[in-house]
Amino acid sequence: MDPLRLHALTAACRVLFGTPHPQPSSTTSQWPQDLKTAHRAKVLETHPDRAVALGVDAQVLARRFREVQDAYALLRSEIDGWPTLLLTYPAPAAPPAT
Question: What are the DSSP calls for 40-71, one per residue?
Fold first, then answer.
């Protein structure tokens, strides 16, 4: 696998799950549901409309919300081979230099 793609996938897992290698709730078939559940929870935490209630700047929440949306889109695009892929390959130590 391309190291840049692997780094993007592990970064997306960190955004949604808080860890680069999330453990499934029960079986591999649960991964899509786990992803959806994590996404919904993060959307509630980061939606810019909740800025006043959370006491956080709306622009900060907008940036975090965009990160959550991008992470979800990336992981959703990889969902077919995702569980095996992330549990097989180690996360890179640092992002590659550009």
Answer: HHHHHHH-GGGHHHHT--HHHHHHHHHHHHHH
Name the burial class of residue 7, with classes exposed (0-12), middle (13-18) and buried (19+) by CB atoms within 10 angstroms of its CB: middle
* pTM, full prediction: 0.72
Placement of tokens 């006043």 in the chain: 52
Give pLDDT, residue 57: 94
- CA–CA gap between residue 70 and residue 88 (Å, rounded): 23
Q: How many residues does the chain have?
A: 98
Q: How far apart are CA 36 and CA 49, in angstroms?
A: 20
d(C-alpha 53, C-alpha 32), whole Å: 30
Give pLDDT tens digits for 17-41: 988 777 666 556 677 888 899 999 9
Yes or no: say if 31 and 24 are a contact pair by the CB < 8 Å rule.
yes
